[in-house]
């Protein structure tokens, strides 16, 4: 049956009306992946030399054993962001004499056809053959290869499981990301433990206790079985549909939003759109990951206050930037319906402002732990939070009126440039330059707090005059609505 499923997918691909475009995209992606593959091969061949340079006082095998778990932690983070779920249109098979195990087995096995599963083999095998084989023999070589392959399989199916569960509940993705971030921070920021030491504790023991390779083997097999059982239990569409219906409440059941009337309903619908679709949900997930950006820079003493202005704007307003610039593109599939509906565009804009205010406020509150690096950091975050609510929100919505490219919400975000155009490039200039145009005239004379006050006052001024800017944006939209609609119709 596996060969039959594969044959059906090939036929569906060649018979699709977008075959030409799909081939072009796959050729470009294949070239990029091949170039990346060559870099990984070179890195694997010279890994022993690199480890000798990075850890000159540490034995090569010890340093190698110490980086393996660090690699797989980073590998999991990359898989959650970039690895796509294997798909098969199961509806045509549900009424045919095809066993559920065949369908589920195909989906589970094709998940192994990922370049992420190839990287650790290419990267670590040359070192194992060059260093571990001569030093510790064939048994140690086999156990290392088996353990690395098993951990790759474990990561593969764990990422698949998390992403499938996240399709029903978006919070699962955020929790998984937070756990990975805390694991990294526990080592590199707070120094509670050493990931390298934990890695050596296991892989160093493999040299003398090869039976320990059974542990990652069992972990990989157990995660495969868990995915298999989950897919088998959710193969019927009505089961998935009922769970989705239970997972999302209607706008009338959100007390905080119900007080805003029709604007609250629009915000609630927007939240549902974000959580239920891959591309829009990825904007929220990436915004959550960017909250940890400060751990990279605030731990360094070399960055001036001027750079903290950028960090504060970025961490408290990244969702406004990444999601807001596609304001209409998210509704591209039903944009014509919006044009003829009784929804007032003023309410539509107000809903965007309310949504951005809610998310940006949550982002600011989540950055409060950065008080560990000083109250000045939180003060800068608050100033830029006001700037985001007033200035950046208005700028983003202004440029969104000039984006005529549609977005297919069902597609994933990995290497997906749909909806991205010159507008996004132009948007970066005012977003990056405007706060510094206000900040620097005061800063060059040493008036730091006056500079912060000017930024906060500008942001508050835009918030206070929000109704004026909404009217301007509404008039701008009406002058471009038919051009936007025409652009969205071009698939």
What does this entry show, briefly?
The protein has helices spanning 2-15, 19-45, 47-54, 60-82, 100-110, 119-136, 138-168, 171-188, 195-206, 214-233, 237-247, 255-258, 262-276, 278-290, 294-297, 305-324, 335-340, 345-366, 375-400, 422-443, 448-464, 466-478, 481-489.
Task: Describe it.
Helix content is 74%, strand content 0%. It has 491 residues and is mostly helical. It folds into two domains: 217 residues, no CATH class; 239 residues, no CATH class. The longest helix has 31 residues. Keywords: Membrane, Transmembrane, Transmembrane helix. InterPro entries: DUF5687.
Keywords for this entry:
491 residues; mainly alpha; 2 domains
Write the layout of secondary structure elements.
Blueprint: H1 2-15, H2 19-45, H3 47-54, H4 60-82, H5 100-110, H6 119-136, H7 138-168, H8 171-188, H9 195-206, H10 214-233, H11 237-247, H12 255-258, H13 262-276, H14 278-290, H15 294-297, H16 305-324, H17 335-340, H18 345-366, H19 375-400, H20 422-443, H21 448-464, H22 466-478, H23 481-489
Transmembrane segments: 23-49, 61-82, 103-129, 135-158, 170-191, 211-231, 283-303, 309-332, 353-372, 378-400, 421-443, 449-469
Keywords: Membrane, Transmembrane, Transmembrane helix
Pfam families: DUF5687 (PF18940)
């Amino acid at each position: 049956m596996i060969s039959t499923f594969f044959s059906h997918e090939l036929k569906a691909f060649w018979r699709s009306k977008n075959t030409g475009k799909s081939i072009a995209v796959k050729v470009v992606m294949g070239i990029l992946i091949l170039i990346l593959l060559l870099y990984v091969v070179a890195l694997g061949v010279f890994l022993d030399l690199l480890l000798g340079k990075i850890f000159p006082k540490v034995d090569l095998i010890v340093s190698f054993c110490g980086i393996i778990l660090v690699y797989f932690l980073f590998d999991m983070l990359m898989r959650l962001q970039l690895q796509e779920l294997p798909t098969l249109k199961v509806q045509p098979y549900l009424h045919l004499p095809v066993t559920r195990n065949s369908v589920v087995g195909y989906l589970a096995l094709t998940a192994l056809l990922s370049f992420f599963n190839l990287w650790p083999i290419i990267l670590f095998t040359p070192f194992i053959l060059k260093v571990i084989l001569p030093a510790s023999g064939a048994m140690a070589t086999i156990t290392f290869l088996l353990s690395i392959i098993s951990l790759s399989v474990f990561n593969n199916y764990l990422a698949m499981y998390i992403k499938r569960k996240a399709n029903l509940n978006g919070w699962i993705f955020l929790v998984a990301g937070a756990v990975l971030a805390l694991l990294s921070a526990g080592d590199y920021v707070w120094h509670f433990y050493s990931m390298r030491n934990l890695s050596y504790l296991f892989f160093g023991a493999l040299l003398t206790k090869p039976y320990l390779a059974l542990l990652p083997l069992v972990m990989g097999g157990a995660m495969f079985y868990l995915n298999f059982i989950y897919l088998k239990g959710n193969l019927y569409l009505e089961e998935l549909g009922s769970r989705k219906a239970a997972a999302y409440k209607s706008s009338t059941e959100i007390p905080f939003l119900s007080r805003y009337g029709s604007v609250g309903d629009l915000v609630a619908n927007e939240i549902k759109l974000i959580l239920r679709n891959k591309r829009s949900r990825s904007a929220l997930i990436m915004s959550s990951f960017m909250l940890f950006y400060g751990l990279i820079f605030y731990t360094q003493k070399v960055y001036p206050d001027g750079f903290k202005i950028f960090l504060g704007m970025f961490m408290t307003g990244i969702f406004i930037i990444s999601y807001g610039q596609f304001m209409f593109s998210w509704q591209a599939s039903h944009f014509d319906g919006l044009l003829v509906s009784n929804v007032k565009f003023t309410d539509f804009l107000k809903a965007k402002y309310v949504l951005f205010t809610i998310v940006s406020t949550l982002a600011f509150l989540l950055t409060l732990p950065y008080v560990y690096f000083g109250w000045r950091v939180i003060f800068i975050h608050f100033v830029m939070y006001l700037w985001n609510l007033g200035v950046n929100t208005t700028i983003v919505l202004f440029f969104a009126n000039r984006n005529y490219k549609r977005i297919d919400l069902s597609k994933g975000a990995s290497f997906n440039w749909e909806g991205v155009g010159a507008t996004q490039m132009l948007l970066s200039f005012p977003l990056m330059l405007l706060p510094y145009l206000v900040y620097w005239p005061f800063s060059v004379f040493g008036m730091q707090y006056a500079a912060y006050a000017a930024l906060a006052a500008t942001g508050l001024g835009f918030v206070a005059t929000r109704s004026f800017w909404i009217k301007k944006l509404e008039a701008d939209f009406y002058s471009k609505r038919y051009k936007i609609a025409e652009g969205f119709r071009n698939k």
